[in-house]
Amino acid sequence: xxxxxxxxxxxxxxxxxxxxxxxxxxxxxxxxxxxxxLLVNLSSAFLVGLFFAYMVEKLDxxxxxxxxxxxxxxxxxxxxxxxxxxxxxxxLNGEWLKLFLYLLLSNFLGIALVALGYGLGKLL
Length: 124
Known about the structure:
Layout: H1 2-29, H2 35-59, H3 63-77, H4 80-92, H5 96-123
Helix pairs in contact: 1-2, 1-3, 2-3, 2-5, 4-5
């Protein structure tokens, strides 16, 4: 039961952070490109790698804390459902170059940032 509450609390906080960061970035860039969502997804990828390597492999934190931070917070913070909605919207509007760039950056940089975060977490 404690783990369920940890996931719920972390998810709520992560969702709020996702909304605030994405909207803030989007309001600042002045172009029709989902950079706010991209930034949130890439930072989430990095943080998943970092948290996993550092907290699980170095500190051996409790399952409750892992559930709060990795499953809850970062699960709520990551926006892959929004990513696919925005990708579909770009396709629907014939924005093929933006669609390709968005999906390429989201996926390949996301994987690279998980690896970078994981490597950094192991060094801590």
